[in-house]
Amino acid sequence: MPKSHRPKKGSRGYSPRKRTKSEIPKFNSWPEISEGPKLQGFAGYKAGMTHAFVVDYRPTSTTSGQEVQIPVTVVEIPPMKVAAVRVYENTAYGLKTIGEVWAKKIDKELAKRMPLPKNYDSKEGWKKIKELEVDDIRIIAYTQPKLVNGIPKKVPELMEIRIGGGTIEERLKYAKSILGKEIKITDFTKEGQMIDVASITRGKGFQGPVKRWGIKLLTHKNSKHRRMIGTLGPWHPSWVRSTVPQAGQVGYHQRTEYNKRVLKIGGKGEEVAPKGGFLHYGVVRNGYVVIHGSIPGPAKRLIRFRDPARVSGVRTEEVHITYISTESKQG
Questions:
Q1: Taking residues 136-158, what's their average pLDDT?
Q2: What does pTM read for this prediction?
Q3: In the prediction, which pLDDT does 172 show?
């Protein structure tokens, strides 16, 4: 008889599929870079999608050098602020925090997120750090949603961003220069470069196994049900294994997409905002970045960027945008 080959339905790579703990995406690793010192990440808010005409920059594409229409995502990127500098040392158990220096002036809205230090002496903090053996340096930055009309909140999101490139002394000097100040997207990347994008996907609630795992419908001879699984597994072992596709949470998971091209960085949102604003978001009033393709999450979702972790064969390309659609997306 022929060999029966019936592979598993759906990827188990992200199991268990449950709701994320935080709406702020996290990066578990940061790539090493040669240039710098500079910030290796940033954050913004997803406004929506439109389309643009660009000269195809992909050298191996069949339309290379020709004008093509592509989908693009617009992310509003108001300036972020640096609340603190955190230093680490390498141990046998990974990175360990050994010191922090906080800024003298921090926005009062951040007090709703965490207790802020009072009567803090930053000069004393820098003296302590100079005596330590530092292996890695990161900043604690926060967003400014109060500057964004489309976001119905004022409490900032707090996150950690690595400073990479150069020597440890150069990184410390750079961190000291931006402590308590605003940072912009241009401190992180520029047009034509690749970045990694992390976000929380659109939540879809409790769904059945057909939508959740992509299993086949049962035959018409099945009694009463067609969108259920055919079996919960064998008699032995005498428990239901985790590999059995069952109903549960779909969406609202963190996902990271690698190597997304930055097509354009601008300062006036009117250049890309459609007539009437983006659906479920509104008008872009701050700076913006245009990303090639789609990114996870609905409008208003916090989006985090990072230097590309998988740079094999990826180059910085000069992008020529001939047209960005500003027609209404209402339909």
A1: 93
A2: 0.91
A3: 93
Q: What pairs with residue 95 in β-bridges?
A: 90
Share of the chain above pLDDT 90, in %: 69
Residue 124 has phi, psi (to 5 degrees) of: -65, -35
Sequence-distant (≥ 6) Cβ neighbours of residue 133 within 8 angstroms: 89
Cα–Cα separations (whole angstroms), residue 175 to 58, 90, 303: 36, 19, 23
Task: Please count the CA atoms within 13 angstroms of the CA of 269 that sit on its side-chain side.
Answer: 27
More confident residue, 206 or 315: 206
The whole-angstrom separation of Cα 300 and Cα 280 is 8
pLDDT the model gives residue 1: 66
Q: Is the pLDDT of residue 297 over 90?
A: yes
Please give the single-letter amino acid code of residue 107: D
246's tokens: 């069952």
Full DSSP string of 19-53: --S-SS---S-----SS-SEE-EEEEEEEEEEEEE
Q: How far apart are CA 135 and CA 206, in angstroms?
A: 44
Q: Characterize 44-80 residue by residue with b for buried, 16 or more Cβ atoms within 10 angstroms of its Cβ, and e for exposed.
A: bbbbbbbebebebbeeeeeeeeeeeeeebbbbbbbbb
Cis bond upstream, residue 237 (ω within 30): yes
100 forms beta bridges with 86
Q: What is the mean pLDDT of the chain?
A: 91
Tokens of 320: 């020529």
Handedness of CA 247, 249, 253, 259 (dihedral sign): positive
For 274, the 3-state DSSP assignment is: coil
Could you tell me the two tokens for 147? 């500057």
Is there a contact between 117 and 180 (Cβ–Cβ < 8 Å)? Answer: no
The Cα 322–Cα 186 span in angstroms is: 22
CB-side neighbour CA atoms (13 Å) of 176? 13
**Distance (Å) of CA 31 to CA 35, 94, 181:** 12, 16, 25
